[in-house]
Design goal:
- The protein has 462 residues and is α/β, with parallel strands linked by helices.
- The chain folds into 4 domains: 106 residues, Rossmann fold (3-Layer(aba) Sandwich); 48 residues, no CATH class; 171 residues, P-loop containing nucleotide triphosphate hydrolases (Rossmann fold, 3-Layer(aba) Sandwich), CATH 3.40.50; 56 residues, Alpha-Beta Plaits (2-Layer Sandwich), CATH 3.30.70.
- 40% of the residues lie in helices and 19% in strands.
- It is built from 14 helices and 14 strands.
- The strands form 3 sheets. A 6-stranded mixed sheet has the order 7-8-6-9-10-11, sandwiched between helices. The chain has a 5-stranded mixed sheet with strand order 1-3-2-4-5, sandwiched between helices.
- Helix 5 runs antiparallel to helix 6.
- The longest helix has 36 residues.
- The chain is elongated and about 95 Å long.
- It holds the Pfam family GTP-bdg_N.
Length: 462
């Protein structure tokens, strides 16, 4: 199944950039999506078969990844692979067919939406006469463009070097150093490839030291936050699920939120005050994706520690996506790698986003299915604001306990606490007494009630 797309300089890219005649032409790319007919193995622990995506969904995601760095997909194709070839992954006939397409379309880059071995990548580059990037390499390129902070840049560079290290497959014998050994039998000295590997390993070691410094700094910041006991709520989800839109809606922050894969890379934290006054730290994290490279997860562990240390995790799903179940499984798998059990309803809350994009029939059906579960998801629209009050109330209940009703009487000496009570509780009634005292009836979270009683006790003690 092939899809052509003519190169048009006036086309507006997915990021909204106008590619006019004077703008630099984006790199022309051919996107190949191999679909292996053999079913992937299920989870070894649960024996549950792994959900597979439709070919159309994989195709759209691959094109979205290419568009995320302003490539121009001049030809895209979904290819069924019954027998993966060790040398090229694809059969020789398909390779020859794509070589003609690359030449005809004047493509400079071929993207294969599947992990390639170093040998497969090298052989395809020879046969197609173009640079070849596999799924891992493309994701790394996107991350390299998205990183803005020093930490993000270091993490991307480390992942890139680890990826590159395994792809030094050529031995440039004409660049060998002077021969070693004694007499005439000494073999060649260090080859260029060995030299390159050593240089890469030195860079990797240096970057690991720098990231360790970043990790220690993060630990210090986290320790300071724990001294001021603000609960941490982390938003996780498949890329493009709407995490940054929700984050902006809840915090009023200006985090980049676009219809684009991996729009956000560096984590952002903001303090939010919930409806009954509970302050929390909200964390927006990098989006997850299927087949996320393991060394990339390892490189971003310092960032993802915000998820591990979070008091509450919001698993945001794009419920309007036909492959939402497979996406949720990918997120749960990565959370499990981080030591977070997605099935723990006390720690992880499933949030269904983009319900405004569903028609009435599908919406009612999905909500009915969700309500029948042990831990019903929260249905929201981060764009319209629907369901956000319910979500904020649930967050507050989870981090601070159920709402409780209480009555307090403040003496004239304690009236300075009235403003604090209004900000940290929901005052139902107020009575000003003749002796100058004030009686308030209010609802507050369990933790807020404990803080109120502690404050009044300290005031009385003084």
């Amino acid at each position: 199944m092939a899809r052509d797309k003519d190169a048009d300089r006036s086309v507006r890219g997915k990021q909204g950039h106008q590619l006019g005649p004077e703008a630099k032409d984006p790199t022309r790319a051919v996107v190949i999506v191999p679909v292996l007919t053999r079913q992937p193995r299920g989870d070894e622990e649960t024996s549950r078969p792994r959900l597979t995506r439709s070919a159309d969904a994989r195709h759209d995601e691959a094109v979205g990844l290419a568009s995320a760095i302003d490539l121009n997909p001049v030809h895209t194709a979904v290819v069924t692979v019954a027998d993966p070839r060790p040398a090229t992954l694809l059969g020789s006939g398909k390779v020859a067919e794509f070589a003609d397409i690359v030449k005809e379309r004047k493509a400079e880059l071929v993207i294969v939406d599947h992990p390639l071995t170093p040998v497969q990548q090298r052989n395809l580059e020879k046969e197609l006469n173009a640079k070849v990037l596999d799924r891992t390499g493309l994701i790394l390129e996107i991350f390299g463009e998205r990183a803005r902070t020093k930490e993000g840049t270091l993490q991307v560079e480390l992942a890139h070097l680890n990826y590159q290290k395994g792809r030094l497959v050529r031995s440039w014998t004409h660049l060998e150093r002077q021969r070693g050994g004694a007499g005439f039998l000494g073999g060649p000295g260090e080859t260029q490839i060995e030299s390159d590997r050593r240089i890469l390993q030195d860079k990797i070691t240096k970057l690991k030291h720098e990231l360790e410094t970043v990790r220690r700094t993060r630990d210090l910041h986290r320790a300071k936050r724990k001294k001021v006991p603000f609960p941490v709520v982390a938003i996780v989800g498949y890329t493009n699920a709407g995490k940054s839109t929700l984050f902006n809606r809840l915090t009023g922050a200006g985090v980049l939120a676009e219809d684009m894969l991996f729009a956000t890379l560096d984590p952002t934290l903001r303090r939010v005050r919930l409806p009954h006054g509970t302050p929390v730290i909200l964390s927006d994290t990098v989006g997850f994706i299927s087949d996320l490279p393991t060394h990339l997860v390892a490189a971003f562990r310092a960032t993802l520690e915000e998820v591990v240390e979070a008091d509450l995790v919001l698993h945001l799903r794009d419920i309007s996506d036909p492959d939402t179940a497979a996406q949720a499984e990918d997120v749960e798998r990565i959370l499990a790698d981080l030591g977070v059990d997605a099935a723990d309803a006390t720690r992880v809350v499933e949030v269904w986003n983009k319900i405004d994009l569903l028609d009435e029939g599908n919406r009612e059906r999905l909500l009915a299915e969700g309500a029948s579960g042990k831990a019903p998801p929260i249905a929201i629209s981060a764009v319209t604001g629907e369901g956000l009050d319910t979500l904020k109330a649930l967050i507050e209940t989870r981090v601070s306990g159920e709402l409780e009703t209480m009555t307090v009487t403040l003496s004239p000496a304690q009236l300075g606490q009235v403003d604090w009570l209004y900000r940290n509780g929901d005052v139902v009634s107020r009575a000003d007494n003749e002796d100058g005292s004030v009686t308030l009836s209010l609802t507050a979270t369990h933790s807020a009630r404990q803080e109120i009683e502690s404050r009044l006790h300290r005031k009385n003690g003084s």
